[in-house]
Amino acid sequence: MVGNHFSWWDGFFIYYLNQHHFHRKLYVMMLEEQLRPRMFLSRIGAFSIQPGSKSVVESLAYTVEQCKYPDNLVALFPQGEIESAYTSHFRFEKGLRFILNRSASPLQLVFVAALVDYYSHPKPSLTLAMEEYVDWGTPEIETVEEDYNDFFQRAVKRQNSLYR
Fold first, then answer.
1. Whether 88 contacts 156, CB under 8 Å
2. How far apart are CA 78 and CA 3, in angstroms?
3. What is the pTM of this model?
4. What is the rounded CA–CA span in Å between residue 73 and residue 69?
5. What is the pLDDT of residues 44-62, one digit of tens each?
């Protein structure tokens, strides 16, 4: 699962989707600096990555290993850092390329967009849009990035049309 990353709550959103739709063993990649103070999250499948360190390859290899099993759901936020909820164009880091290039068989990718809005309510609403990514062969990371951005824009457009 590939999603946008605007808060540390994003992993919980994926957890919710998994509980209600996928029913798989969940793994969520988190920045080590975010996971370290919340180690309890490792009990529900969170594992760390530390950009810029030698352990990045280990974390990515672990991800590839978990992707081998169809009963697993691995969640990634390939922008590599938490960005504003209002980010509308995403640049993916190199990790997703590593995973796609080293996977022995085609992976099922699901795009997810977490959209938060208040509209006229005192509390925010959360919309989780999902779409299976279909382009198999060996997709180029630039194509996946572009297709995710297109998906995200369609999700925002649908969200806007619901509240007009």
1. yes
2. 7
3. 0.91
4. 9
5. 899 999 988 999 999 999 9
Phi, psi of 3 (to 5 degrees): -140, 170
Residue written as token pair 């996971």? 35
pLDDT tens digits for range 116-125 = 998 888 999 9
CB 121 within 8 A of CB 11: no
In total, the chain counts a number of residues equal to 164
3-state secondary structure the chain: CEECCCCCCHHHHHHHHHHHHHCCEEEEEEEHHHHHHHHHHHHHCEEEECCCCCHHHHHHHHHHHHHCCCCEEEEECCCCCCCCCCCCCCCCCCHHHHHHHHCCCCCCEEEEEEEEECCCCCCCEEEEEEEEECCCCCCCHHHHHHHHHHHHHHHHHHHHHHCC
Contacts of 69 (CB under 8 A, 6+ apart): 25
